[in-house]
Design brief:
By secondary structure, the protein is α+β, with helices and mostly antiparallel strands. 34% of the residues lie in helices and 9% in strands. The strands form 2 sheets. A two-stranded antiparallel sheet has the order 1-2. It is globular and about 35 Å long.
């Protein structure tokens, strides 16, 4: 019984450690590099939270949620084109939603901040 408990504990610790190492290897560099001071001066507090700290704006608070104008949605920080208005739809979530991105301009990843995707 003690062996099973010890083995389970070792397996759990090994898995946690491998995830930490994986995260370390996945760090990327980007074309736009600015100091935190520069980002803070360019972005509002909410924009800074969303773009630099992976925050989320409150549901139904975005002026883009009900926007019906044709055009291209671009990143507030680097002006990279992200989505075209023709692919925008109302998901009922309270945030602007698109069924496809501009290829190569949007990065996807799984969010494990709560311990699960």
């Amino acid at each position: 019984m003690k062996t099973i408990a010890l083995l389970s504990m070792c397996l759990l610790l090994f898995n946690c450690n491998s995830n930490a190492q994986k995260k370390e290897l996945e760090k990327k560099t980007y074309e736009v590099t600015k100091s935190e001071k520069e980002w803070r001066s360019q972005l509002s507090d909410l924009e800074y939270s969303v773009l630099r700290k992976a925050g989320t704006e409150p549901r139904y608070s975005s002026s883009y949620n009900d926007n019906k104008l044709k055009g291209t949605y671009v990143c507030k920080a680097c002006e990279t084109p992200l989505f075209k208005s023709e692919f925008k739809y109302d998901s009922g979530s309270g945030w602007p939603s698109f069924d496809r991105e501009i290829k190569g301009n949007v990065e996807f990843s799984t969010d494990y901040n709560l311990g699960y995707p």
